[in-house]
């Protein structure tokens, strides 16, 4: 469903509600409930982003007010509606919401999952924020049903609204991850942390060599994977004549894209370490293998999106095959090719499993990158710091390392978006 359709439906609903003759008690009650539901959804998102709990008393008040609004809707609908059986689910939802206003604030600050054989815990603010978002969405749904007497129009507006919110809800895990890392990692970013080498098992020092190693990996992977991936895509789309061989190649590329990264690492350990030893070149080559399928498929789709009529026009003017590809096909396909290439590099920058056995070390790498020497990298460094949590005071440095790694990956994604827009024809 296109965004414009959802937008038009929401605008149409708001225009109807703003008409003077629509200011009935029923419309006002439904509008207040919908706006209050949006407030609950906003509080849920803000609580997640800021990693804060709104407090037991405020939570109880918010849930009670929502329950009372829905209870009034239930009473009005019961007195005026001819088909009261449709109110059953709304009444049950209101009762459950009333009960949650009492029991939810009494939850402990964290819920231990060790009884389920999991060494983790659910924090209360996460449970509450997710609960508020779900309650807000369901309350909007019931408010539309109340407003339009549980008819078809209520289902239509509720569906459009829920689809609109589902787009926002998809971003909920991203908000949790990014906000948690920023809140915990940003305070640890200092000049000494960025310019010193690691010491005392990561409890002191910095990550300068890890930063240099990660940048070296990205540059090396780009030097190998971009020419090979784009060249393979051009061959498959422009020169290959189809047939069983081309189909096998494309199936193989799809299979490679789905292989777990640890398998690439084991393959490279068996093949490359015996040739080059433990060194940076192994990491570059294995991450190139990992990135190639992404670049090939995205580049191939971008080239195929160029209309055939443009090629035929070029041939009609006397241009050769290569001239057509270079000057006619590749320029309009460039935004998609660049996006796929940079996204592939972003994935390579964050991979840990492939480089575990190929030359990544926690400390002791040369200050100047050497293709035939061990190297330090941010993902491997973060993994080792996680191992040391509890034994050494490395938690702050671990969060700061995660923050830098996330910044690199998000930065590469931002570069992909900027370049795509810049070169869009």
The helical percent reads: over 70%
Q: Helix and strand succession?
A: HHHHEEHHHHEEHHHHHHHHH
Q: What is the number of independent domains?
A: 2
> In total, how many beta strands?
4
Beta-strand fraction estimate? under 5%
Structural class: mainly alpha
Reported for the largest beta sheet, the result is:
2 strands, antiparallel
Helical element count?
17
| CATH structural architecture of the largest domain | Orthogonal Bundle
State the CATH topology of the largest domain. Answer: MetI-like fold
CATH superfamily of the largest domain: MetI-like
Please tell me the overall pLDDT. 82
- Distance from first to last alpha carbon: 26 Å
CATH class of the largest domain: Mainly Alpha
Low-confidence parts, pLDDT < 50 over ≥5 residues?
Answer: none
> Based on CA inertia axes, which overall geometry fits?
flat
**C-alpha-based Rg, rounded:** 28 Å
Q: Strands of the largest sheet, in order across it? A: 1-2
Description:
Helix 9 runs parallel beside helix 13, helix 10 packs across helix 13 (280-304) and helix 13 crosses helix 15. The protein is built from 17 helices and four strands. 73% of the residues lie in helices and 2% in strands. It is flat, with a radius of gyration of 28 Å. It has helices at residues 3-18, 25-50, 56-80, 88-103, 124-147, 152-170, 172-185, 191-195, 208-239, 244-258, 261-271, 273-276, 280-304, 308-316, 321-350, 378-388, 395-422, and strands at 110-112, 121-123, 198-199, 204-205. A hairpin with a 4-residue loop joins strand 3 and strand 4. The two termini are 26 Å apart. The protein folds into two domains: 3-170, no CATH class; 191-422, MetI-like fold. The strands form two sheets. The protein has a two-stranded antiparallel ribbon with strand order 1-2. By secondary structure, the chain is mainly alpha-helical.
């Amino acid at each position: 469903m296109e965004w414009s359709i959802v937008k038009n439906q929401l605008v149409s609903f708001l225009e109807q509600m703003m008409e003077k003759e629509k200011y009935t008690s029923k419309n006002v009650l439904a509008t207040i409930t919908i706006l209050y539901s949006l407030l609950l959804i906003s509080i849920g998102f803000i609580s997640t982003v800021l990693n804060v709990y709104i407090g037991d008393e405020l939570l109880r008040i918010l849930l009670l007010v929502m329950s009372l609004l829905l209870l009034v809707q239930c009473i009005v609908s019961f007195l005026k509606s001819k088909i009261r059986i449709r109110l059953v689910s709304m009444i049950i939802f209101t009762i459950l919401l009333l009960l949650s206003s009492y029991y939810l604030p009494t939850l402990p600050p964290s819920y231990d999952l060790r009884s389920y054989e999991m060494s983790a815990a659910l924090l209360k603010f996460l449970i509450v924020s997710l609960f508020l978002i779900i309650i807000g969405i369901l309350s909007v749904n019931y408010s539309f049903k109340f407003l339009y007497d549980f008819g078809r129009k209520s289902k239509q507006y509720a569906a459009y609204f829920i689809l609109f919110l589902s787009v926002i809800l998809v971003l909920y895990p991203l908000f949790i991850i990014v906000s948690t890392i920023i809140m915990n990692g940003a305070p640890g970013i200092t000049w000494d942390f960025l310019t010193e080498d690691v010491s005392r098992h990561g409890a002191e020092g910095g990550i300068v060599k890890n930063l240099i190693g990660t940048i070296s990996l990205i540059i090396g992977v780009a030097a190998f994977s971009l020419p090979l991936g784009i060249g393979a895509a051009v061959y498959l789309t422009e020169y290959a004549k189809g047939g069983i061989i081309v189909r096998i190649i494309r199936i193989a590329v799809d299979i490679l894209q789905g292989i777990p990264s640890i398998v690439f690492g084991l393959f490279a350990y068996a093949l490359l370490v015996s040739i080059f030893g433990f060194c940076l070149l192994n990491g570059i080559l294995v991450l190139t293998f990992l990135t190639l399928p992404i670049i090939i498929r995205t580049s191939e789709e971008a080239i195929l999106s160029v209309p055939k009529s443009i090629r035929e026009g070029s041939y009609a003017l006397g241009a050769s095959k290569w001239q057509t590809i270079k000057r006619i096909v590749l320029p309009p396909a460039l935004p998609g090719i660049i996006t796929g290439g940079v996204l592939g590099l972003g994935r390579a920058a964050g991979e840990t499993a492939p480089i575990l056995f190929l030359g990544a070390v926690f400390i002791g790498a040369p200050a100047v990158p050497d293709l035939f020497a061990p190297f330090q990298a941010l993902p491997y460094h973060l993994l080792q710091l996680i191992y040391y949590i509890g034994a050494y005071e490395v938690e702050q440095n671990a969060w700061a390392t995660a923050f830098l790694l996330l910044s690199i990956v998000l930065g590469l994604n931002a570069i992909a978006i900027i370049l795509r827009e810049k070169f869009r024809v």
